[in-house]
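Human: My hope is that you can spare some time for a protein that puzzles me. I am handing you a single protein, as its sequence and its fold in token form. Could you go through the record with me and say what the backbone is doing? Take your time, and here it is.
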Amino acid sequence: MSSAILKRLPLQMFWPTFDPFLFCAFHKDRYPKATAEMEPAASLQGRPLGQDFHGIDGWRMYHGRKVPGFPVHPHRGFETVTIVNQGFVDHADSIGAAGRYGQGDTQWMTAGSGVQHSEMFPLLDEENENPLELFQVWLNLPAKNKMVPPHFGMLWNEDTPIVKHQDANGAETSVKIIAGELGSVTALDCPPDSWAADKNNDVAIWLIDVPETGLWIMPKAQSGLNRTLYFFEGGSAVIDGVEVSVNEAFVLKSDEALSIQNTGKKARFLLLQGKPIGEHVEQHGPFVMNTRQELQKAFHDYQRTQFGGWPWPRNDQVHDKTKGRFAHHADKLDERPA
């Protein structure tokens, strides 16, 4: 009987999350070859364009009608952390920031007082399939930071720390530290107004790869955290002495170490951990506030100001196919991965 596992939950498209996290979506699509316009080189007939979430032929257009993805939409009151393991995302927003990121990159955006953005999935390979795999995690903001200025940040794959551990048999587990710390290794800086910016909140976002037959011991953290482990790829494992299968989530006791013994093919896990904010949440669609009055004001402000308007020529903005990975910030700073 496990003392560290408090609850087991099935994984569906939108995963169960707990304060300070609001939402976690896992997108995995096997897109076909691309056209020169970065669209699928396949018929879209029969798809419910604008609301294509059915996974026909192993891929989805989501809200896109030509390029898959999520055309312009608003947010207020929280942060999006978008982790792209495969494929690419084209970002554009109402504060003038833009970027193309993928192949292990993470974009961390503080919506704060309000921002519009689009997240499109450009298909760049005209000769081969264009697989996409990404997580989008919504991290809440406390009341004191709900109305901070929007912030757009990139955590490039090349700079994101990975901790590796060999077990007694030489099997090597790797842990990618997107937020938080593991031993002496600390994640790249997150936006300054994030709940994760205060180390006392012990926010962690880790991607954990355990090889066949591998054993890894997840260290304990402080008590009182919400800590959830998502088993999203692989076959089977034994977690804290309990036999488990892929596509399950495990709510964990945060102040106990946890053993993960892989008993199948390579196993992949996502960890979300953090001290609860502990404030009342009122959410409707893309707005997350603390009271109904604040929520109503968010809708009114968006209708009145459009959160700065939309400076891009397309609602489903994609960038020049030849640009590669880049980030253009609202202060005109341009950056690329090393």
User: Anything to note?
Assistant: The chain has a mean pLDDT of 97. The first helix runs from residue 292 to 305. The chain has two domains: 1-14+161-279, 21-42+58-155.
